[in-house]
Design brief:
About 10% of the residues lie in helices and about 30% in strands. The relative contact order is 0.16.
């Protein structure tokens, strides 16, 4: 369904960090492919779904997320 909607599936690729604009807005992510090359993936929205993240407000703030606007 995701591919049918236009999503590109990247296998053997892991997310490394959030890509931000000069104003601090989230613009996508940086990722590393299996061969070691770095990608910048532009996105309108980024969902961080790593598990165990919501209970650590300090880490959330460090990563640029406001815990007031997150949902467990």
């Amino acid at each position: 369904a995701a591919e049918a909607a236009g999503a590109e599936i990247l296998l053997n690729t892991h997310g490394d960090s959030i890509a931000r604009g000069e104003d601090g807005s989230i613009q996508g992510v940086y990722a590393t492919e299996k061969d070691g090359s770095i990608l910048k993936i532009n996105a309108k929205a980024v969902i961080v779904a790593t598990g165990g993240f919501l209970d650590n407000e300090e880490l959330m703030r460090e990563m640029g997320f406001d815990p007031e606007y997150t949902h467990a």
